[in-house]
Design a protein that fits this description.
Length: 263
Amino acid sequence: MQISTVNVNGLRAAARKGFVEWLAATDSEAVCLQETRAEHDQLAPEVLAPEGWHVVLCPAAAKGRAGVALYTRAEPDAVRVGFGVAEFAESGRYVEADLGPVTVASLYLPSGEVGTERQDEKERFMAAFLDYLVRRRDEVQAQGRDLVVCGDWNIAHREQDLKNWRANRTKSGFLPEERAWMSRIFDEVGLVDVVRTLVGDVEGPYSWWSVRGRAFDNNTGWRIDYQVATPGLAGRARETRVERAPSHDTRWSDHAPVTVVYD
């Protein structure tokens, strides 16, 4: 089973720049999208209902913001939107689908900004989502199933996950308390950072680059797009790759797809 995740930075724009062609060429059985920023009636048929795919699109109540989606080859056995917290029920930030023995989720965690309400919102989301992951882990494991949460977590967990980590220690996305929260996901909840486990203790692989300057050309990036799985599924991960565009002008998003192959 191959799974890909990517923040598309606006699905309509990505579709015009190459997402449709990428989707047609991928071997993935599930594709998780974030920051779709689109309503159903704004998408062309080749995006909303491409041949060979089942699509679950979850726009945010606030039009033009956030939004997540799942593209799956097989029709899901069940779909759940949100994670049971009223504040985020219509925020377009979480959807999951049951595909046989595996639940695949698409997550778009708020980005935050230090000293603003956006950061407060991010922290409330983090606290609520951690509680949900504990419950969901117990549920899927009691059923003999697995869970993988794919998406833009908007946090670089370790120094290896951010090229210019020294300059970003006081910025949202690399704050000590955010990184400690990610550690709790792995150490307390017991989920696994699949890509980090596969690639080992190396820099990156980065999946997002600022549009400013020559960040992409110089590979001055952040690794904020993760596949986080229950140990049973993580143990069956065999290979991973970041599908980085060959050049700046061939990108269809400021993020690159992160793909994992599981046995």
